[in-house]
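Protocol step 4 of 6: record predicted structures for both targets in the notebook before any analysis. Target 1:
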Amino acid sequence: MNIFNRFLVILGILLIGSGCSAILMITFGMLDPEQMMPSPWHQIFTPLTQLEGTNWWSVVGVCLGLLCLGLCLLIVEFIPHSSKNSAVTVKKDDLGHITASLTSIQDLVNREAGKIEGILESSTKVKEGSDGIHLHCRLIVTPQASANVLGPQVQDRAKEVVERYLGKNVVEIHIQTQMAPLEKNTRRIQSRVR
């Protein structure tokens, strides 16, 4: 959400909150509409001072509900959003910082995995931790392939290519093999034609 939209949301929340607060104060008898507002407006709010029973509870309940909702939305707007990190920081110094996109790292690992005989498709997820890079690779393999042989090959190649590309340690590589096709919404790289 851009700054202008965020400003409008916050302004709307504050206006609704102040309106609900004023209605509650009038309903509880803390404010007198005749003293507070000009002639046509006090006639609208004066009946709020005479509410009883279910009507009183309804007005108080709706106003308190709107105030709570507005407060929650205001807190959400002011809390910095932890957006999903889409890049890995390679280097940061006085001149600036260098990053590599997660998709480029995923494509790099998928391309390397696709070069190994017996792997038909590869889908990789990359996560940067405080201790280094973590990879999770899902592979579609041929029925003749051996997960015991392919797994370590993919781990070695992925570790080598990512460490060379990023200059950061790869501390964990999980390999999951399957013979069924990967889901359509994951990133896939077809290996060379066999």
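Target 2:
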Amino acid sequence: MRKENVFSFDSSIFELTLVFATGGVAYYSLEILWRGYSHYSMALLGGLCFLTLYLLGRTFPSIPLLLYCILGSIIISAAELGMGEILNNKLGMDIWDYSNIPLNFRGQVCLLFSFLWSLLCLPINKLSKLMRTKIFGYEK
């Protein structure tokens, strides 16, 4: 349920855009800190994943944290696989390659990073809740 909106206009487009941009900037920055470089497509992928997880939490505000993290890992890994198949395997952009990591699939996803995505869902969940309640006026 939503309290009175903190903005005086219909903010649904604004909400989705801000959430997408936040995820894109956050993931792009995180990847630069982790690897020392990134690619603009990672901002798009990060924005898409953060928006999806934000909407998951908005739709199911009482979802158990463990389930949220498991679903988040699946969502992020599936998005990574889809983007990897297009960008890396079809277009040959070689943005990332997990081929040298055990338990990988076609070098695009691997069990280790799927686990790391589940851990990343902890701060994602917290930030999503803060945005929903403090910026966009949702109850939970």
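Step 5 preliminary note on target 2. The chain has one domain: 12-135. Confidence is low (pLDDT under 50) at residues 4-9.
Proceed to step 6 after PI sign-off.
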